[in-house]
Amino acid sequence: MKIxxxxxxxxxSAQTTGSNVALTGQLDRALYxxxxxxxxxxxxxxxxxxxxxxxxxxxxxxxxxxILSGSVVIPKDEFNFFPSPPAVVDRxxxxxxxxxxxxxxxxxxxxxxxxxxCAEAGANVDCYEIQQGNAFHxxxxxxxxxxxxxxxxxxxxxxxxxxxxxxMNPPFMKQADIKHVMHAHQFLKPGGLLVAxxxxxxxxxxxxxxxxxxxxxxxRGGRIEPLxxxxxxxxxxxxxxxxxxxxx
Length: 248
Prior knowledge:
This protein is of the alpha/beta class. Mean pLDDT is about 90; it is low at about 75-80. Strand 8 (about 165-170), helix 7 and strand 9 form a beta-alpha-beta unit. The chain has helices at about 5-15, 30-40, 60-70, 85-95, 115-120, 130-140, 175-185, 210-220, and strands at about 15, 20, 45, 50-55, 105, 125-130, 150, 165-170, 190-200, 225, 240-245. Helices cover about 35% and strands about 20% of the residues.
């Protein structure tokens, strides 16, 4: 079941506590009917006493998966490590306008799909990757020379504004993409550019974190372009994605 953005916006504004999902605000009947259909399909049952849809398990994880994918049908291992397919990498580099000699940061490098492509274009690429196995593969199997490859949680790294470009595909779960992108933006030097794959929810969610991100894009004269549906299908996920382009 694919879900329209107006329904996703309602779900993203719902109050989720434990196994309960309570809708907020007044919805017209037609919109409520569509929202209710999604909640029921996802396993939520209306409970009059709780004034909420009640799920068997943790409702937050289920809701987050639905909002990210725009679908009720979600694989069990959704949103862990999903490498960037070649077509996505090509578009990232096209938007980033990578040139020889540039200093580039890839703060969620995975196994190197983006970092290697930037290095092959002549950039000096530094990488951060939280999973040790991925970091080892990124550094040791690289077909071209990379700069530093550090195994660390990127969000704990103190920003140094020294990079011409940040090119990234961060984790998405629990709005981690916004956290990573806004942190990574601080690593750009004046005149630099950040280009990032993100969950499509950054275009329609209405919470404070998303609003702060949207404000950053607007203030910097950035833009967000949608990626084609199923751009990450070959990597094992149907998550809906966009690319954010944000100047320093």
